[in-house]
Fold each of these.
Amino acid sequence: MGNPKAFLTINRKEAGYRPVLERIEDFGEVEQTLNTEDRMLQASRCMDCGVPFCHWACPVSNRMPEWQDALYKGKWQEAYEIVSATNNFPEFTGRVCPALCEKSCVLALQDMPVTIRENEAAIVERAFQEGYIKPNPPQKRTGKKVAVVGSGPAGLAAADMLNRKGHNVTVFEKDELSGGLLRLGIPDFKLNKKIIDRRIKLLEAEGIVFINNVEAGKDISTPELLKNFDALCLCIGAGKPRDLPVEGRELKGIHFALQLLRQQNRWVRGTEVPPKERIGIENKHVLVIGGGDTGSDCVGTSVRRKAASVTQIEILPMPPRKENPLTPWPLYPNVLKTSTSHQEGCTRRWSLATQRFVGNNGHLSGVEVVDTQTGVAEIIPADLVFLSMGFVHPVHEGLADELGLLYDTRGNIAVTTTSQTSVDKVFVAGDAHLGAGLVVRAIDSGRRAAQAIHAKITL
């Protein structure tokens, strides 16, 4: 540790965000960056604790104290080597991870944790800029072939790790471009898609084959996959959204959150959206049902699309603003989270359960809700509703059912051993097994699945 007392003299300094009135006019990334000197000073604040709770809290077990020290000393390449030893894609997590590590930082007890996430992003961007990151294909090939179905963070991590072992890896993606929800589920204002393109290009140069616009089990048959590959790794996500089957659900103007986000991300990229499929938002009153990150993404998208108003409701009570005794440090705190999208213009309300949708001539005009604490009902005017209440499990129809996979009580793909499904040669990683979760957890799951597959096919 270069400066053991830095945390006493240097305060936490965040990069901050672009001005609201500027950023709501485009879909560029909202987060700014610190200069090199400030970034290195922020790294010096790491206390190198005897028990690094940041490491304990991180799903991929990042060694934060080690790369913070290297960053503080200006050893950028060494810092990147430490980061990438446990995390395949720090450029993703450095942008979209909720930073479980920071919430477990000892300095979080004083609301001044080390800027771990921002430091991570700075390290990987410097590595790309300086050319530390270059294609590094394996020297030898094993001759074994593995199919990875799905190119989200779990699929990319599994493919990367298997390729490093020398196996021939083919990634099948049902959409037109690789990236999964990184590509079509997370708005560009949080994750510029050029960041994904850059990584995919690198993985291709290292020998991974990406086949897009091909749905496994449909465009390529299940028997064909089992015959042509030594192992399958299913990284198909938790694609079944939670619905709200109440009166009026059939009214026009009610959409799942991903219908908006996928359409918007395609539009930003320049893909033409058929007129009949376009969701018009301008001058509309928008209601987002669900208080999580995906709901927040719908808020930011609606603001940029010039909605007349945006309201977000949540069935649960408003969490505490500062500390929650139910989730004490070093646990991830269940407290009020205000995103950049919320800051851009949004009415937030809690303890509201949806009773029914109301409308005129087949079109939505409002949503009747009831306060779960007082029992008082009201109708919130709304032209559009985006259902953002999470995902229940992976899509069963198609590949999963054809393989005859077993599911757990929640409908996720069950495993008999680490990452191994009930069918020989078939493994699973990410949300399809864990349930909808964080990008960093999906990366860890993909790494673990790759380890299990490698052990299986090299027996």
Amino acid sequence: MRSQRNLFIGAFLCVLFLVAAVVSFVWTPYDVTQLNIANKFQPPGMPHVFGTDHFGRDIFSMLMVGARTSIAVALVAVSIGILFGVPLGLFAAANRNTLIDEIIMRGNDLVFAFPALLIAIMITAVFGPGALNAIIAIGIFNIPVFARLSRAAALSLWERDFILSARVSGKSSMRISVEHILPNLLNLLLVQGTIQFSLGVLAEAGLSFVGLGAQPPIPSWGRMLAESQTFISFASHVVIFPGLAIVLTVLGLNLLGDGLRDYFDPKLRQSIPELKKHGGTH
């Protein structure tokens, strides 16, 4: 089935880069901070599998450490979005059609109007560039995404019979939100979190590309692209491999999110036995 194939391929790619990031904490083929100008622009082969860059650094080692940077920035940024956005969305849904709901949603619209790159520029102007500021910028951008999603999903649940029963039993709105609404949103949040994670990897690469993300000597896929773009005519491998790392990571996360969405979709899961019964395929 397509959903199982997407789930498997996406999970495989994500685990591949996650393992590379974890292993980079204890081992890399070469030291990413050691310069060796005499070996610059070595083509892919042995002993440098992906070749070397303009400073003679091993590209494979740089990609391993760069995976650590991208995953850490995206993971913390998505966590910020969930920790602040979901409570705001649930609180707005619990106080729907009130002044509180209006203030929260208009505030989300205001933040949502500024892309992560623009937020990063404003933060950088005050505090300077760095991975921490990239995390803050991407995290702020994720808050309204999860707030709007949580509110929209919660509003549909507030009209369900089991919620009405909880209200009749005397439970407060916030208690209902925590005990009954939030558990029913976990699958949706997991899928959206996977998608936002892929966007976080892209955002981190974009911020590093323009010099607002992780700073030297910390390797970053986006900065590797920025530093190597002038050498693409005679040493294309210095651009191809960081670009492939970004593409495959984002592709894996999107396939994983697509597979999880299909897996958690109750309508789809109910339709599978019917398809098998009639000899159909998905």
